[in-house]
Amino acid sequence: MEIKITKDDIDYALSPSPWDLGNQVLYNLCQDYPRHDRGEEIIAKVWLIGRSYAAAIERRKKNVAITSDDFYETTVVKALKNNKSFSLDKMLGELPEKIKDPWGKLGQAVKVHKELMERFSEITDLGKRSLASKYLHFHRPDMFFLYDSRARMAVAKVTPSIKQIAKIKAEKEDPEYLTFCRRCQWLHDYISGEYKIELTPRQLDKILLRIADRIRKAHTNP
After folding, report:
1. H/E element holding 44?
2. How many domains does the chain have?
3. CA pair distance 17, 14, nearest whole angstrom
4. Residue 66's pLDDT is what?
5. pLDDT score, position 2
6. How many other CB atoms are found less than 10 A from the CB of residue 181?
7. Contact 99, 142 (CB under 8 A)
């Protein structure tokens, strides 16, 4: 644990951001169109979330000859549309309505994330770990931590060795996202105990990206 979270970081996490409106549009989109039965709804969510977070699904190794529009309208819709073998709606519906025991229940979220990663991998030949976390976060903002390389680096700086952090049991997992969730939950609990404030995954992400930016600037201007 190299960097300590300060009260200023907490205040920053709780303060308004110029990005709040754009994120709220995405939350509203997934709240208004939560299901995966209709192609246009699937396209809208994957397209807007992916493009907004520099994690566009059309960045892929496979089928590079297929145009972006065709890829969304055929491949992406087919991959995410509810069917007998795969239903994201069913998996999301099986998650608890409220998180009362995060260390005991987050394993379910980790499993859903892995299932979606595998689905994305089938059509892109890439893991799409970041896109999967963000796509799921906008459907369940209370349960999915937002993963990307900056947040991963920052959370490792503000949490102890992973060996000192409680485990999360999951039937199926992407090891990197599982480790990330363990660190994020530890950080949530630490802030709750130290500052008596319960931060959301979105607010934790604000802190982590701020720390990542601070580290980048320190390296740029030693």
Report:
1. helix 39-52
2. 1
3. 9
4. 65
5. 80
6. 27
7. yes
Contact 94, 15 (CB under 8 A): no
Q: How many CB atoms lie within 10 A of CB 102?
A: 19
**pTM score above 0.90:** yes
What is the C-alpha separation between 222 and 216, in angstroms, rounded? 10
Say how many residues make up the chain: 222
Residue 1 falls inside a structural domain: no
- Tens-place pLDDT, residues 112-156: 999 999 999 999 989 899 999 999 999 999 999 999 999 999 999
**Domain encompassing residue 211:** 7-220
- Rg from Cα positions in the chain: 18
Structure letter (DSSP) for residue 58: T
What's the rounded Cα separation, in Å, for the pair 87 and 180?
25
In 3-state terms, what secondary structure has residue 39?
helix
Residue 163 carries which DSSP code?
G
Within 13 Å of residue 3, how many CA atoms lie on the same side as its CB?
Answer: 19
Domain membership flag for residue 2: no
DSSP designation for 162: G
Does residue 171 lie within any of the structural domains?
Answer: yes
149: tokens are 């390389």
Q: Give the pair of three-digit tokens for residue 82.
A: 């509810």
Could you read off the pLDDT of 157-191 as tens digits, one per residue? 999 999 999 999 999 999 999 999 999 999 999 99
